[in-house]
Amino acid sequence: MARKSTIESNQFTDTIYFILLCLNEPAHGYALMSKIEEMTNGEYTIGPGSMYTTLKKLLEAGLVEMCDQEAKVYCLTDKGRDNLVKDYVRRKRIIDQSREIIEGMEVCCDGEIKTNFELGLGYC
Amino acid sequence: MEKSKQILNWGWVTAEKQMIRKFEKCAREGWIPDPEAHAVYKIRMKQAAPQDLQYAIDWQPTLENDAEYLSFFEAAGWKLALKEKGGFYIFSAPEGVPKPHTDRALLRELRKGRLKKFIPATLIYLLICIVFLVSVRVVAMPTWVVFLLCIPAAYCAFQFGILLVSTISLLVQQNDF
Known about the structure:
heterodimer; A: alpha+beta; two-stranded antiparallel sheet; 48% helix; 15% strand; B: alpha+beta; three-stranded antiparallel beta sheet; 50% helix; globular
């Protein structure tokens, strides 16, 4: 059986997730690139090729729409909003399920054994 | 008169990495592609100030109006260096500008889409070549007919070769990750 695309499978890639998240307010496609970079403090960058292709795929899937054809402004559809929330819940569930293990992990820090929780999830 | 030189086009699918390296080397030596010049297997380069540029290729075969598409690249610091037949867009940017494709899963999906088009075409050309070779051996036909058939057969064999190399190249890139 052919593997479903990331959009159809409803397990979004980080690129799709951030695009939908930032489309909470209507925006130009190219403005989204800098918006995502600002929101993530420069930790996440989306290149123009990935941004353009992903937006077209999201348009085809009905998750976003062009709310201003002339100005090329994109916005989230109801379907897009629903799927974004579903993916948020999925991501949150993964974090919740792994929290206990991750925070309880012991690491040796300056000769002392500490848990990740005691270290504030920072690096030793 | 503006100085120019020509370089061989090895193909954007068959030799993507080699072409990018060649363009980057040319830019360092003071040569950039001339967007006005079009040739099938050669690219005209025009003289410019030596610079450290990075190049990237993107494929958009179904794009009718590319104004919005190009605006995305411009906003990200990428300038259109060359536009080739078949929807190949070649962009240049100063070093340090993030690559146009940052999403590996998406890139893999795009390559898979390309492979879906290339594999049947490769098989069709292979089939035509086999039919030609078998018919020449089995069916008795005058020499002039054989010669006449050689022209389309040679074309098919050439296309098959190009498509085969392109398909293998895409499969290798697909397994790079």
